[in-house]
Design brief:
It is found in: Membrane. Helix content is 73%, strand content 10%. The termini are far apart.
């Protein structure tokens, strides 16, 4: 994901959520609808979340230090995890509490015209934000399904914005349903039911985000296709006999660490091994540009060493047999 693309989606979501939060707060003041209050709090939380994502991107760009020799790329994962926590605690927990309160003590929705007008405006703005996130994601998603993209993306911003916008859109329709039923039936319990549904929705989204960002935060390696590409690049070098083992880990969305042990030929000189390592690193970076740190450990190829030993033993045996043959003659 390009930095520009991710930032564009975040800024679009931030602008939409600020406008929506303000309009929902006005609607709540006129209607007293708990769905409107829950949606307003949701939009405020989303606005803060986009701010956290922008902060994480900025802080991840700092240069490495002796204390953090691999840099600060994982700060983006940390702030994405904080977003999931905020979405759950501020959005989901508050909505569930407010919905329970409204179901226990139902109230009539006042001035419903305000609620409907604000919900329609919010749906339009949120659709614009969601459309921007989809457009930016399509530039990097390739042929992956949406679920696979969310699960496998190493840059957390677009998946977070996508899920937030989706939850916001569905939440708006749930709020519209709750308010509509409360007005149509005169029973404020429907407003509370809509609010509880919003809380459950936000809880599910927050859980998905927490699971995915936690996995990135503690360290993920490359997918099998990328690993095969790296192995092919390594073993295409003439001085590399074969790969013994490999470990990979993302230090950030655009920073991949590769550590591998490679078998080299028994008769190669140190200079030849060094040239082979340099060539292998160059080929890996050509095929996998995010490979910023590559550590290759050479080891003697056991197969070639065994072959050399067997050849030496055969030569010694042949040399010992010659004098015996001449003596017998």
């Amino acid at each position: 994901m390009s930095a520009e693309g991710g930032t564009k989606a975040i800024v679009a979501a931030l602008a939409a959520n600020l406008g929506i939060a303000a309009s929902k707060a006005v609607a709540f003041a006129f209607t007293g609808s708990s769905s409107m209050l829950a949606e307003s709090i949701h939009s405020v939380a989303d606005s803060g979340n986009q701010g956290l994502l922008l902060l994480g991107r900025k802080r991840s760009e700092r240069d490495r230090t002796p204390e953090h020799p691999f840099g600060y790329g994982r700060e983006r994962y940390f702030y994405a995890f904080v977003v999931a926590v905020v979405l759950f605690t501020v959005g989901s927990a508050f909505s569930l509490y407010e919905g329970y309160h409204k179901i226990s003590h139902p109230e009539h929705v006042k001035a419903p015209v305000w609620a409907f007008a604000v919900l329609i405006v919010a749906i339009v703005l949120e659709t614009f934000s969601f459309r921007t996130a989809i457009k930016e994601s399509n530039q990097v998603r390739g042929e992956q399904s949406w679920w696979s993209f969310i699960r496998r993306a190493k840059a957390p911003e677009l998946p977070v914005v996508l899920l937030e916008d989706l939850a916001a859109l569905v939440g708006l329709f749930l709020a519209l349903f709750g308010v509509s039923m409360a007005v149509a039936t005169g029973d404020g319990v429907w407003d509370g039911i809509g609010t509880v549904a919003i809380g459950v929705l936000l809880g599910v989204v927050a859980t998905i985000l927490a699971i995915e960002t936690k996995s990135l935060l503690i360290g993920e390696g490359v997918d099998p296709d990328t690993e095969r590409t790296i192995v092919e690049a390594l073993e295409s070098v003439e001085e590399v006999a074969r790969l013994i083992h490999i470990r990979t880990e993302y230090l950030g969305p655009e920073a991949l660490l590769i550590a591998a042990k490679i078998a080299v030929y028994h008769d190669d000189t140190a200079a030849e091994v060094a040239r082979g390592i340099d060539a292998a690193e160059a080929r890996i970076r050509a095929r996998c540009p995010e490979a910023k740190l590559i550590y290759l450990e050479p080891a003697l190829d056991e197969a070639s060493r065994t072959g050399a030993a067997e050849a030496g033993a055969a030569a010694e045996a042949g040399a010992g047999a010659a004098p015996e043959a001449s003596a017998s003659s």
